[in-house]
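subagent[fold] <- orchestrator: predict structure for attached chain, return tokens only, no commentary.
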Amino acid sequence: MGTGMDTGAGQAEDSVDRHIARWTGKVPFDVPTEAVITRIQLLAKHVAHGKERALAETGLQAFEFETMHRLASRGAPWRAPSSELAAELLLSPAGMTGRLDTLERSGLIRRLRAAGDRRRVDVELTDDGHRRWSEAMRWRGIAEDEMIAPLDATDREALATLLKRMLLQVETRRP
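subagent[fold] -> orchestrator:
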């Protein structure tokens, strides 16, 4: 391997091993830190590609999926006030209206006047919208399962614990 890194018995070099070998001696860096951070960055890119594939397989655009995902997270009947969705998605009222117009024309959502307050508009996934969102989630799951397949249950739990520790460090750090 040439990097001095123990990549595990019988494991092939990955692109990060080659990256480290290329840069060793040229710039100062801590090899284990570089290996962890670079692998996290590359895995994040693979997750993004899996999401893109899910959208391509279902014919959804990212903004459609994200809006439908927010609705689906509420459980049946997959409904929320449009103002609440706009706040979650960081959209202006006009931006939310445009997004909902597109989704409604596609038959993925419907708008309903709230019974107690006719000024409030609720947004609800249609059966077709929920089906398409579910299919995109299925494709995302396939991509995630393929990525994590080399790890057994113990490895997955250990990795989740380590990543949580790292994430808590950056999320709780004071500016």
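orchestrator: received. Logging for downstream: Helices lie at 15-23, 31-58, 62-72, 82-88, 93-105, 127-148, 153-171. The radius of gyration is 22 Å.
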